[in-house]
Amino acid sequence: MVAKRRDGIFPHIGTDTWGRNLADAIENTCAEHGVVPPPRQAITEGLATALPDTEIRGLIANRGGKKVLKPSAYRLVQAGDEQVLLLMCDVHGAAVVPWDLNDRTVGCWSPPVAEASQRVKELIAAELALHNARKTAKTAEKERESCRRAAGDDTYAAQALAAATQKHKDAERRVGELEGECQALLTALGGRRPRPVVRAAQENREPKAALTLAEQPYEVAVHMQRYAAENLERAGKTRGYDLAESLVDAGQLSKGMNVLQQWQITHPDGTVSKLWRLAAVTGNNRALARLNIFRVRPEHLVTGMPQSLLPMPKDKKADPELLLLSQREILNRLSDRLNEAAAKPEPEATDPSVRAQKIATVSAEIVIGCTKPAALEHVLRTLNVNDHLRGIQPYDEDARLIALFATLVDAYARESLLADALAEAFPDARGADLLDLVGVRDALTANGPLDPLVPLVPAGDDVSPTVLRDIAVRAITALVFPEIPPEAPKRTNARTVRDTGRFWPIVRGTLQEPAWSQTKAKTAEARTRLWSAAIAQLFLHRGNILSALGFFGVPETAKGAGQDPRSLKVLLLGAEAGDATAWAALVQRMAPALIHAPQPFITAGQGSEAGDGRKGVRRTPKSALAALTLAYTATSAPNISRALLLAFAKAVLEHPDATQPPEAEGSEPLVCYGERHWDKGRTPITAGMVIAPDTEGRPTHYVADKAWFDETFPVELGRPAPGSPGSTTTSPTAGTSTDPTATTVHGAPPADPHDQLATLRRELPARVELVESGYQQAVDSAHTLMTDFEEAHRLRVQLGEDALPAEQRIEWMEKLTKVRAAAQASVTTLEQVEALILQV
Fold first, then answer.
1. What residues of the chain score a pLDDT lower than 70?
2. Between the N and C ends of the chain, which has fewer C-beta atoms within 10 Å?
3. Beta carbons within 8 Å of 827's beta carbon, 6+ residues apart
4. How is 331-368 classified by DSSP, letter by letter?
């Protein structure tokens, strides 16, 4: 005999038959409007199992012998260039999971790199081991206390007490070791977790209007969902009122937008469950608050609800390891339990059956179709950003700036100028016209890998994570600080309007800045904050975004950043060859890595100019960058060498990609330079830390930190005296005289010839490599030119077109003749260099 279900205000979910009818209606309606529906399984298992049985009946109508949605049940909205079909209905109050990708918590997520995902697994294992070790230590402490209080003073009792005491000490030591391991793993993760990457769900190898997460172990899914919920709760505490109590008192007053998303969970026994759930695109705080009122944890909805939490009378035994995977069964059990509790004569006021009455069902809009499923995630994220930017809830500054930058990138894409802006910023790109703009947009906003930026890498350069990150930093800089055309010479006294180009109006309109002529220090600071927040998303270890204040001033904000177009490889070779301008550009490229490091080298301004002894020496970010730049040519710092600077630069640029902690040569362990005199409480050495080099560029036994940086590159180094040798950036070979008694223009004695020879021998290998790279690029360009002319000749013959005018052909031939003459002259020069090599 089947037990009659208990009626009440908490709804019951419809049957499989109504789920299939709803899937038919949605598919037919999407076909009428020319949009792509979600996978059928997503509708039947994720959507229909969240709707009350009476709700589905009110959504469906029969027309022409087929089931469709009623016109009042859906609406078609325009989201940028895409169209999204939304189903308007009432869902069960506990059927929606908070979305991990809420832009208000964007600062708590790190880039989705494989190394971070592996560290999360290691952290979970370490936390489990720590939990068990603490239980063991607690048990050992009880045994020790039991032995200490036991009557008798015989030898056996003393031995038992000694053994129990030693066991407790061993357990406490093990707890300390595991706490250190957990802290080291958290430090290696930068205190954050890698952002979940969602993709468009596929059905028959075709993208559909739903999202899916990559397969992940059960423990990882639980950990990540709890982490997302904790950070969402922390962000919601800035609200001016108690959201949960508002929902209990007045219910939900506004609709939230939801999307169907699939979680693929690998269980310990090897089975894989693919669960479809509704995820809140907007109204994440409300979704989490509703679950808290229902006393349902978000991780239980997406990984499986333990049967012991929702037992039923028909269950013979509550198995704590049995998971309920069906959303219909979970919600029906929850409704039955709440209806039973609400039917009692006087239920407690704190019981969920009383508190959740006004949110038993809530109004929602659910994405059931879109024109371009591959861009659905981006469209939904944009809607979330727009909804929050227009809201009144206090917005975390970092998250607000990141949202503004995403809006700026979208503005470039909407005006079809994103590719043009990147092509202008990367003149040596191997194929700027081959960019996948959707992938580039995700890469620049840290919502996807950096691989779509490969076409911007110069031809001949190797593609590596370091190079791609440098490309991303340069691209963000170009978009935030676009170049404007040079001012045209005035020919009359008539008033003219300055031409700001194609890109600056986009920045002004998005950031709502004043006119170009009104660009002041306040605008420069706001733009620098935006740049710093966008750059921070590219790094695993996220430093203070205020550490970049002063990097860009009013000239860069008004006229553009003026970036050096040379690649990292060329800049490193140039700095090794003695080019001070290459080192200055390299320092600018290093700046983000100096801020966002496990041991940051540049921090927000600290100290006091009036009291160095009380608060430390005043050091602004701009001062630290200036000291590092001028260290290349400074003669007043004998402990700084070119070898030290180059070794430090290479290590800093590569540190974000390190997967293992650095190791010192020999048996002496590594310690942070500022903690070298400490006996305990030292910072754990984790992946990404940089070993401090000596003057020969060799690694030492210290990890470079801010103390090492400030000692090596002091504040005074960034303030050279006017006209001093350290303030010039002349070539080491310039001004060389054969007169041993001659002096320099500043009255100082000339450089020692031995030092000059040593410097040249050290720099010449890099200069040879620079010449080789330049010639290889010229050869590749000539080969490409020949291929293009051959293709043009073939097409002209095939189509029977007339030849070009003689004047144009003569002009091209004259230019190529000059190029060939210059190439032949350079060959003669290289032959002379070959002869000189034998004499050096």
1. 1-6, 151-154, 315-320, 390-394, 491, 495, 606-618, 718-752, 754-778, 780, 830-840
2. N
3. none
4. HHHHHHHHHHHHTSSS--TTSHHHHTGGGSEEEEEEEE
> For residue 445, what are the CA distances in angstroms to 363, 372, 381?
32, 20, 11
Best CA proximity match to 420, nearest among 434, 404, 432, 430: 432
Are the beta carbons of 382 and 279 closer than 8 angstroms?
Answer: no
Taking the C-alpha atoms of residue 93 and residue 333, their distance in angstroms, rounded to an integer, is 14
Residue 741 confidence (pLDDT): 37
Angle at 184 (CA atoms; ends 181, 186), nearest 5 degrees: 110
Sequence-distant (6+) residues with CB within 8 A of 800 are none
- In this prediction, residue 74 carries a pLDDT of 93
Structure tokens at 310: 């929702």
- CA dist 339 to 92, 250, 696, Å? 14, 20, 77
Beta bridge partners of 91: 362
Question: CA 672 from chain center: how many Å?
Answer: 27
Other CB atoms within 10 Å distance of the CB of residue 804? 11
Distance in angstroms (rounded) separating the CA atoms of residues 625 and 591 = 7
Give the pLDDT of residue 725: 42
What are 377's two structure tokens? 């995630």
Q: Are 634 and 667 in contact (CB under 8 A)?
A: no
Quick check: 519 and 526 in contact, CB under 8 A? no
Q: Which residue has the tokens 């890698």?
A: 194
Q: Are the C-beta atoms of residues 236 and 229 closer than 8 Å to each other?
A: no
Q: Which residues contact 186 (CB under 8 A, 6 or more apart)?
A: 123
- Cα–Cα distance, 525 to 50 (Å, whole number): 48
Predicted pLDDT of residue 740: 36
Instruction: Quote the pLDDT of residue 93.
Output: 93
Q: Using CA atoms, how far apart are residues 308 and 317, in angstroms rounded to an integer?
A: 9
In this structure, the number of other CB atoms found within 10 A of the CB of residue 266 comes to 16
**Would you say the C-alpha torsion 656, 657, 660, 662 has a positive or negative sign?**
negative
Token pair for 92:
């069960």
Q: How far is CA 195 from CA 109, 317, 378, in A?
A: 5, 39, 15
Predicted confidence at residue 836, as pLDDT, reads 65
What's residue 721's pLDDT?
56
Contact yes or no for 584/590 (Cβ under 8 A): no
Q: Which helix (H) or strand (E) holds 53?
A: helix 53-59
Alpha-carbon span 88 to 49, nearest angstrom:
16
Kindly compute the dihedral angle of the four CA atoms of residues 528, 533, 539, 541, in this order, to the nearest 10 degrees. 110
Distance of alpha carbon 321 from alpha carbon 314, whole angstroms: 18
How many Å apart are CA 367 and CA 259, to the nearest integer?
A: 5
Question: Are the C-beta atoms of residues 477 and 449 closer than 8 Å to each other?
Answer: no
Dihedrals phi, psi of 812, to nearest 5 degrees: -65, -40
Residue whose pair of structure tokens reads 């899937």 in the numeric block: 23
Taking the C-alpha atoms of residue 24 and residue 66, their distance in angstroms, rounded to an integer, is 8
Residues 6 or more apart from 489 whose CB is under 8 A from it? none
Q: From CA 593, how far away is CA 658, in angstroms rounded? A: 13
Tokens coding 273: 């469950």
Closest CA to 481 of 584, 556, 587, 590: 556
Could you read off the pLDDT of 671-701 as tens digits, one per residue?
Answer: 998 888 888 778 888 888 999 999 888 889 8
Could you count the other beta carbons within 10 Å of the beta carbon of residue 425? 23
Nearest to 142 by CA among 167, 119, 114: 167
The pLDDT score that the predictor gives to residue 282 is 86
Buried b / exposed e along 583-613 (16+ C-beta atoms within 10 A): bbbbbbbbbbbbbbbbbbbbbbeeeeeeeee
